[in-house]
Design brief:
The structure holds three protein chains of three kinds. By secondary structure, chain A is an alpha/beta fold. Chain A is 30% helix and 23% strand. Chain A has one domain (8-91, 172-316): 3-Layer(aba) Sandwich (Rossmann fold). In chain A, the strands form two sheets. In chain A, strands 6-7-8-3-9-10-12-11 form an eight-stranded mixed β-sheet, sandwiched between helices. In chain A, a hairpin with a 2-residue loop joins strand 11 and strand 12 (314-316). The model of chain A has no long low-confidence stretch (mean pLDDT 88). Helix content of chain B is 38%, strand content 23%. Chain C contains twelve helices and two strands. Chain C is flat, with a radius of gyration of 31 Å. Chain C is mainly alpha-helical. Classes of the chains: A alpha/beta, B alpha/beta, C mainly alpha.
Chain lengths: 321, 335, 359
């Protein structure tokens, strides 16, 4: 299995930020602390976790929007470095969470979607460019007549579609979807989720789908990775993770999901975690989750658990499972 | 035995008069809330759910005004209270907690001083009593090390902790009604579960009524006695949780339920509601949802639907229900 | 199931509701589409202009400025006097035309009129050197406005460049550049002007003798120099702040993700979004520059005589305040009108275009 070429191969990714004022007072924020995963062609890997777990940083660091502190990213077998990253800009793209700040308010839709075409000189005549823009708008479900309007004239869901069209302009093979539906209303979320699925079916694009809403993630993803304080604590097939979570954090995460169904909600046994998420600036020694874990023992304080393969394709980082 | 409902909202209309025109945020909603019950108001952005609550407490921004309707609290119309009366009323009879505790707590004052202020405004206890009450409230909401916390500042606390402090402040004077405006939307899912459990516990202990405003159907499924679904500033339907989820009678509610991804054996494609939310500056003359509705009829475009009684526990404002009743009556005649 | 008594009214019979049965046919897509209307397309600019024109103070000040502008362009074409030459009657210099009140004539002029000559009235009278005061005020306004305009341009150019570099580069570069700004901010500007004018006078005094700049004088040059050296810091800070906040927007990150180079990002994404604030700030900078120039001229550090400026006119009028109060009134009112109009216009621009102030 290790011989099969993965489209995206992330190994040991680390991203540390130094925070704190003053020369002597530097604290290190380990936003991403040794994260590894792979994504195959046309596949969706879901990345979940709560705020501060580092999932957004993973997405951006993977695209070299932030310079990684350590670790390697391979795309289609080739190593991505700071020097050659511009060659990969056509293959790897990103869609952002906030439809309001991710589009330049001074540009028309045509300019926004056309910018990647201009940068990479993908079309030679104005007519071709306009046709491609119209094609992209239709692909994401927008009216191509609106190409000359400004972004602020559209609703949140429509703006998100514009962002998707922009990412698609260069025909990428992989898109990092950074919480693309979190800022949208429920009814619009469903539209955008369907759009993502349709595009994947049509164009064979792989996604790293980052979100905090587990229901959305399990709907979209073939595999799910669960992050906590900068580490992946569990990774495996989506269905398995949801139905039989192994890591204690994953367990409580799933039990905490508010189910939109009164019968299920009434009979659900909730595992309520005590306490709050520790600050990533002062991470607990050993396993980062032990401060809130029901099964924590002395061993958990002493050493950090690594990801172990418990079942085929199923990895968990815990001393007791 | 018909006890008077604690809160009666009758035909409330609220608009915002902005540079761009009149934004009709709430267009005639009516509901009742009985003492000790939990009412959930569900809707998406622009539905008017938060604005309706702010109208009740009269904390609308400068450009907002209640243009029509009554709000009766224990029989008295609080829309007619003077500002001085309202100030005595807010926080002591009806309290509210908001979505983002970071912006609702003053960053320059300690937790303790803000909590004490909430207590001092509405009671006349001396300093020791106020301090004791503050400690008591923090313990009640599950804040650990309460003495230490009272001296801390908002930025030193986590999101979940801040929300607990907000709840403590809101409940310090034992109000009859607690309005919770998207109280867990900004919180992580595990913290959300903690806060919701806390609210349910407190509700059982203190017996106040709660109005839970949210867009998350999951959050209200378990907590609420009655649910109102809002769209375009109007009530789409009103009923118990079981009725709303298992017997939805408004196309919008049905659409919402179909839009939520489920955990299921095979991957089912979501059935979203087409189109975009209604523009509150240009409300259509008929049903606000008609242009997005699969089962819209000509009458839906012309007249706003009247509320129809579905059963003892359920009201819906959708012309399709009237059509169904007409067909049933016809069948009844022919049979 | 929880107990529930929502005061629901009893079921109504359908036929008692008087409904037209035909209306219960399904609505067509075309009918539904009629309800969906996309609002008319406006750009940010058009929206802002609309707002601006609804503001009476802004519109009023625009009218005043327009009138002033037209006057100072047309007046020298109509009024046959020069600002530096004495009044002449029949070619001879008229020494009796000293300190005339508005709309009066000197003895010699009166005689000429009686003889049948047409003499243009002295709308503002004359000054102590027998020069027509109206034309001097007009030229004074020209100088003040020109100074205000060019000084603001200098401030804009330097401040914009400096601020954008600091803001975009960030990190240590930004730190150092901003500390320099802090130092400059703390220098006393009036003192600097005085020092610079002395220095420049010595340095350039000779070489400027026969050039165009001679008429402006070393004082003015030193004033421009001071603006160029000191007053740009406010703009730099503003631009830097704007750039820092715009950089945080995700569309900048998106541009990076699609492979845009730095130059493109600054040109297409950052600068267009700062423009609103920068233009407003420049508009408000003009009255400040005019006022500074007037003040400096008032204390004698402005333009060289005979070139008038509103400030220097006010200064010369100071001595004769008791005897000829009107001489102070005209330039003072001129300064007030110009400065006030620009300030109100700037405020109006800010109200119209600042997105944070939207209702």
């Amino acid at each position: 299995m290790s011989e099969q070429k993965h489209l995206v191969d992330v190994r040991g990714l680390k991203e540390y930020f130094s925070v704190g004022s003053g020369v002597l007072n530097k604290l290190e924020l380990k936003a991403v602390d040794d994260v590894s995963f792979t994504i195959d062609e046309g596949e969706t890997l879901g990345l979940v976790g709560e705020s501060g777990c580092g999932k957004t940083t993973v997405g951006r660091t993977l695209l070299y929007l932030y310079k990684p502190t350590a670790g390697e990213v391979y795309f289609d077998g080739r190593l991505v470095t700071e020097k050659n990253v511009s060659e990969f800009r056509k293959d790897m793209q990103i869609v952002f969470q906030d439809p309001y700040s991710s589009l330049n308010p001074r540009m028309t839709v045509s300019d926004i979607i056309g910018e990647p075409l201009d940068i990479h000189k993908l079309y030679s005549t104005k007519k071709e460019r306009a046709e491609r823009i119209a094609e992209l708008l239709t692909l994401v479900g927008l009216n191509s007549e609106h190409a000359n309007r400004y972004a602020h004239e559209f609703s949140g869901g429509q703006r998100q579609r514009i962002g998707i069209a922009r990412a698609l302009a260069v025909n990428p093979r992989f898109i990092v979807c950074d919480e693309p539906v979190s800022a949208l209303d429920v009814s619009i979320q469903a539209q955008i989720i369907n759009t993502f699925e349709d595009l994947q079916q049509k164009l064979g694009i792989a996604y790293l789908f980052i979100a905090h809403d587990l229901l959305v993630v399990q709907h979209m993803s073939k595999r799910i990775a669960v992050m906590y304080l900068g580490r992946i604590v569990e990774i495996g097939p989506a269905k398995d993770i949801i139905e039989s979570p192994i890591h204690p954090y994953t367990e409580s995460l799933i039990s905490a999901i508010p189910m939109p169904d009164p019968e299920t909600a009434r009979h659900k046994h909730r595992i309520i975690l005590e306490g709050d998420v520790p600050s990533p600036l002062h991470m607990p020694k050993g396993c980062p989750f032990r401060t809130r874990c029901r099964y924590a023992t002395k061993e958990c304080e002493e050493s950090r658990p690594e990801l172990r393969e418990i079942a085929p394709e199923r990895f968990v980082a815990c001393h007791h499972r | 035995m018909s006890e008077m409902p604690l809160l009666q909202v009758k035909n409330l209309h609220t608009s915002f008069f902005t540079d761009a025109g009149e934004v009709k945020a709430v267009n005639g909603i009516s509901y009742n809330l009985d003492a000790g019950k939990v009412l959930g108001i569900v809707g998406e952005s622009g539905s008017g759910k938060s604005v309706s609550a702010y109208s009740v407490l009269r904390i609308l921004t400068d450009t907002g005004r209640v243009t029509e309707g009554e709000v009766l609290f224990k029989g008295e119309n609080i829309l007619e209270y003077t500002e001085a009366q309202m100030q005595k009323f807010r926080g002591s009879r009806i309290s509210i907690i908001f979505q983002d505790p970071m912006t609702c707590l003053n960053p320059t004052f300690s937790i303790g001083s803000q909590l004490r202020e909430a207590i001092q405004i509405h009671t006349d206890r001396n300093k020791e009593e106020v301090q004791a009450r503050a400690l008591e409230m923090l313990q009640l909401v599950g804040v650990n090390e309460p003495e230490k916390r009272l001296k801390q500042y908002p930025h030193e606390l986590s999101g979940g902790m801040r929300q607990r402090v907000m709840i403590a402040m809101a409940l310090a004077c034992e109000p009859d009604i607690l309005i919770a405006d998207e109280p867990t939307t900004a919180l992580d899912v595990t913290i959300q579960a903690q806060i919701l459990e806390l609210m349910q516990d407190l509700q059982k202990k203190m017996g106040m009524a709660i109005i839970m405003i949210t867009h998350d159907l999951g959050v209200i499924a378990d907590m609420c006695d009655e649910i109102i679904v809002m769209y375009g500033g109007k009530v789409c339907e009103r009923g118990t949780a079981d009725e709303i989820f298992y017997n939805p009678r408004h196309e919008y509610t049905k659409g919402l339920i179909r839009s939520i991804p489920r955990i299921s054996e095979k991957h089912e494609r979501l059935v979203p509601i087409s189109g975009s939310p209604v523009d509150l500056l240009n409300l259509p003359k008929g049903c606000a949802f008609a242009s997005r509705c699969d089962r819209a009829m000509k009458i839906c475009l012309e007249q706003p639907p009247e509320e129809v009684v579905v059963n003892d526990f359920h009201i819906a404002a959708c012309w399709n229900n009237v059509k169904q009743m007409m067909e049933e009556a016809k069948d009844g005649e022919n049979a | 199931m929880s107990e529930y008594n929502p005061n629901i009214p009893p079921k109504k019979k359908p036929f008692s509701m008087q409904i037209d049965v035909a209306k219960f046919e399904a609505a067509t897509d075309a009918e539904k589409a009629q309800q969906e209307v996309m609002r008319e397309s406006t750009t940010f600019f058009r929206d802002g202009m609309r707002k601006l024109f609804r503001n009476p103070l802004a519109v009023g000040s625009m009218i005043v400025l327009l009138v002033i502008l037209v006057t100072i362009i047309i007046a020298p074409l109509i009024v046959p006097y020069s600002y530096s030459g004495m009044i002449t009657v029949d070619g001879k210099r008229d020494k009796s035309a000293k300190n005339l009140s508005p709309f009066t004539y000197s003895k010699l002029e009166q005689e000429a009129i009686d003889r049948g000559e047409k003499i243009f009235p002295h709308i503002f009278g004359t000054d102590e050197l027998c020069r027509d005061y109206f034309i001097r005020v007009i030229y004074g306004a020209r100088v003040s406005l020109a100074v205000g305009f060019f000084a603001s341009l200098i401030v804009l150019a330097i401040g914009l460049l400096y601020g954008s570099i600091a803001g975009y580069a960030g990190g240590k570069t930004d730190l150092i550049m901003m500390r320099i700004v802090d130092v400059i901010y703390s220098l006393p500007d009036t003192l600097m002007v005085i020092l610079l004018s002395v220095v420049l006078d010595q340095l350039l005094g000779q070489s400027l003798q026969n050039t165009v700049l001679a008429s402006i004088g070393p004082n003015m040059l030193s004033m421009f120099a001071v603006f160029g050296l000191l007053y740009w810091v406010g703009m730099a800070r503003l631009v830097r702040g704007q750039i820092l906040s715009i950089k945080k927007n995700e569309y900048v990150l998106a541009a990076q993700a699609m492979g845009a180079k730095r130059g493109r990002i600054i040109r297409k994404h950052i600068l267009p979004n700062c423009m609103g604030v920068i233009i407003i700030s420049t508009a408000l900078q003009i009255p400040s520059a005019i006022f500074t120039e007037s003040f400096l001229s008032f204390i004698g550090l402005g333009v060289q005589a005979p070139m008038p400026s509103l400030g220097s006119l006010a200064n010369s009028a100071r001595q004769a305040l008791q005897a000829y109060p009107y001489k102070m009134v005209f330039p003072a009112v001129g300064i007030c009108l110009i400065v006030l109009s620009f300030n109100l216009l700037g405020d109006g621009l800010r109200d119209a275009f600042d997105p944070k102030l939207r209702k």
